[in-house]
Design brief:
166 residues; alpha/beta; Double Stranded RNA Binding Domain; Arc Repressor Mutant, subunit A; two-stranded parallel sheet; 5 helices; 6 strands
């Protein structure tokens, strides 16, 4: 059984999901791929992991770097999990390109190259927005790239982090 809870962020409503123990999803309401990791049957219930996630989001949206993380569980293919784990290494206020992620994956796999487009697809299907910071991934030459919740939201998140880092 999966569970959901709602959070009102400064950028709009968000829905979080859990398997009862760990966070499995966090989406801006209405974004692309919303709820794609949820089982068909779920119920709304405030769980401890949702309390932790709400606290994490409150710290984040106040312009500070959270010094804790709610438990997360990834429902994704092995490739997507590898990409998402790299996203977790991108420091607050910094960015990484799709190409850099692809090069890192290729190196870790002993391959000559990895498709930046495949990385982009995996990033776009990130089920745990903000906490797994897919908004910190940009295209080549600093172009913003895409964002499942829209470029306006991505820009606002990057601006929040850039202002807080000063």
């Amino acid at each position: 059984m999966d569970y959901i809870w709602h959070y009102d962020s400064p950028l709009g409503g968000m829905t979080m999901a859990s398997d009862g123990q760990a966070l499995i999803g966090l989406w801006f309401d209405g974004q692309k791929h919303f709820g794609e990791v949820l089982d068909s049957g779920y119920e709304e219930c405030l769980l401890p992991v949702f309390d932790q996630t709400c606290r994490w989001l409150a710290v984040y949206f106040s312009g500070k770097v959270p010094d804790f993380m709610p438990a997360i569980s990834l429902r994704a293919s092995a490739f997507r999990k590898r990409v998402l784990k790299i996203l977790l290494t991108i420091p607050y206020g910094q960015t990484m390109t799709y190409g850099q992620i692809a090069a890192r994956l290729a190196q870790e796999s002993g391959m000559e190259r990895m498709s930046a487009q495949a990385v982009g697809t995996a990033v776009g299907h990130n089920p745990i927005s903000i906490i797994i910071p897919c908004h910190r991934v940009t295209g080549s030459a600093g172009r913003p790239g895409g964002y499942a919740a829209g470029l306006k939201t991505k820009s606002a998140l990057l601006q929040l982090e850039s202002t807080a880092c000063r």
